[in-house]
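User: Can you predict the 3D structure for this chain?
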Amino acid sequence: MCEANAYLYIDGKEELYLENVDVMKPEEGKIFLKNLFGEQKVFEGQIREISLLRHRIVLEKL
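Assistant: Here is the predicted structure, written as C-alpha cells:
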C-alpha cells in the first residue's frame, strides 16, 4: 500500500491531521485530502514536505 499520513506543522511541531491518505489535490490555496475509509478534509495552506519513502505529508498554514 502507498497511502501516507498527513501532519500539520504548527509552532515547530507536527500533529497528526489525517491517516491513510489516498488522494490529495491542491487547488487555489486549499488542499483536499481523502483517506481509504472515505473521510475527507480540506486544509487551507500549503504543502511543506512530502516523503514518499516515509509515507508522510506535512502541511502548514500560510
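The chain has a mean pLDDT of 95. Residues 22 and 50 are 13 Å apart (CA to CA).
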